[in-house]
Amino acid sequence: MQHSISVRDLTLNFGAVSVLKTLNLDVAEGEFVVLLGPSGCGKSTLLNCLAGLLDITDGQIWIKGRNVTWAEPSERGIGMVFQSYALYPQMTVRGNLSFGLKNARMPKDEIDRRVARAAEILQIGPLLDRKPAALSGGQRQRVAIGRALVRDVDVFLFDEPLSNLDAKLRSELRVEIKRLHARLGNTMVYVTHDQIEALTLADRIAVMRGGIIQQLDAPQTIYNKPANLFVAGFIGSPS
Ligand code: ADP
Ligand code: MG
């Protein structure tokens, strides 16, 4: 089977500092892979490379069999959800959901159809005419996910989407994201430093440290057979 994402010998330097070190990663079609590791280990940098938000130093990135190493973000068939929501404050929820589609000159009835579908899936229908300031953190994050959803992309990238939320909302949205994945069946790469999130969401977890993937395995294997002391200590100790 063709991989959804293939990262080949990816190196990224910020000046003299090497942040990603000849990193390799294959993600299967429809797979949910979590990038887990302590702050500063390069998780966001890797995700931003996949999204095309950073120019890489060396290596290749393939998405759905296409070499996208130098492709624009909008040409990669990916949707990204950030921790900070990044919603437009002056626009309604409907405006936020449809903005990118309008820019791409999609016909209005197709935009309406996609917005209605995303609103139904994420249960934000009653919020469509509100502005972000009138939403809770959890609702804002649903809208942020909706913005990726309306683009109808094959690959979702999440960068710590739940870390601004309180514990109760976090576990609620965790369930929601799992359900979303089951329903859409698309490929997801999800960054977190939260072990519980990784263990509950992932098909496979990539444990990172210092720009290197230390172990890439199913949650059970990571938990029961850690490859080294770092993995054992990191997954074993609650954050
Ligand atoms: P994580 O998401 O795992 O917390 P990051 O990918 O954000 O880690 O950062 C990895 C390393 O790269 C850190 O040491 C960070 O300080 C460094 N870094 C991130 N962005 C930049 C940048 N724009 N310029 C220089 N160094 C950076
Ligand atoms: Mg980060």
Summarize the structure.
It comes from Fuscovulum ytuae. The chain has 239 residues and is of the alpha/beta class. The chain contains 8 helices and 10 strands.
**SSE string:** EEEHEEEHHHEHEHEEHH
Gyration radius from CA atoms, angstroms: 18 Å
Number of helices: 8
Give the strand order of the largest sheet, numbering strands 1, 2, ... along the chain.
Answer: 6-7-8-3-9-10
What is the percentage of strand-forming residues? Answer: 25-35%
* First-to-last CA distance: 36 Å
Overall mean pLDDT score?
A: 93
From the spread of the alpha carbons, the general shape counts as globular
How many β strands by DSSP?
A: 10
Taking pLDDT < 50 over at least 5 consecutive residues as the criterion, the unreliable ranges are none
GO molecular function, one term: ATP binding
Keywords: ATP-binding, Nucleotide-binding, Transport
Protein name: Sn-glycerol-3-phosphate ABC transporter ATP-binding protein UgpC
Organism: Fuscovulum ytuae
Q: What do you see in this structure?
A:
The structure is a single chain. With 239 residues, this protein is an alpha/beta fold. The protein has helices spanning 43-51, 93-103, 108-122, 137-149, 167-184, 195-201, 219-224, 229-236, and strands at 3-14, 17-28, 32-36, 58-63, 66-67, 78-81, 155-159, 187-192, 204-209, 212-217. The strands form two sheets. The chain has a six-stranded mixed beta sheet with strand order 6-7-8-3-9-10, sandwiched between helices. Strands 2-1-4-5 form a four-stranded antiparallel beta sheet, covered by helices on one side. Helix 2 (93-103) crosses helix 3, helix 2 runs parallel beside helix 4 and helix 3 (108-122) crosses helix 4 (137-149). The longest helix is centred in the last third of the chain and has 18 residues, at 167-184. It is globular. The chain starts with a strand and ends with a helix. The mean pLDDT is 93. Magnesium ion (MG) is lined by residues 43-44. Residues 5-235 form the ABC transporter domain.
